[in-house]
Amino acid sequence: MTVPFVVVSDFDGTITAQDLVVALTCHVNPDNRTLVDRINRRDLDLRSGLTALFESLPSENRQDYEAFIQETLTFRPGFHRFQEVLEEARIPFYIVSNGLDFMLDAALGPQETQAAHRIVNHARFDGPSIAIDWRYPCEPPCPGGCGLCKHAVVAELRARYQAPIVFVGDGVTDFNGAKNADWVFARSHLQSHLDDAHIEYTPYESFDDVLNALFVAEREGFHD
Ligand SMILES: [Mg+2]
Ligand SMILES: [Zn+2]
After folding, report:
1. Which of 18, 22, 36, 216 is deepest in the core (most CB within 10 A)?
2. Which pLDDT band holds residue 115 (cuts at 50, 70, 90)?
3. From ligand 2's centre to the CA of 81, what distance in Å?
4. Cα-to-centroid distance, 170 and ligand 1 (Å)
5. Of residues 170 and 173, more confidently modeled
């Protein structure tokens, strides 16, 4: 299958207006804010940080977490149309998240009902608190510490589709993936990390911004 490009999007703070991992873990235990600040400063690697955040959530309250996600969830403007347009154009769309599968299921509905593919860590509720089965461990040349390695995901999708990767993100969890992508749309923390590293990106606020930029590029002949 030949496709002009593949879209990889972060979930928390990108597809959702608010980061649900932060919202949920800090709602259950406000002390987690300190951990979140350390992750954002890159003073704590993601894998250790996310492990600690979810360890503070007792497994028995799963239904409360799902209800909280559904109450808190707001989509970034333009997301639904963006998803529809990609589906109609048969552009592969991957939601790649360092969050956990039960959170995306609560927010988006079960994977089986959706066109967008999901690459996400698996939450285990069989112990006293939530444990994480990690997907996509870091491999060189990724510097490591990703949790779910978006750098590795981008490399695999580029090889699979033989097409440029468009990456949309907002946070520190996106940095290693963005570094490996062909075209990056960035906002918030990701923007400042990319500025510091002198890596080019296109700023966006809504998915309409992303869609418009992609349309213009396609009209002019999409190049990586
Ligand atoms: Mg994010
Ligand atoms: Zn990595």
Report:
1. 22
2. confident
3. 30
4. 5
5. 170
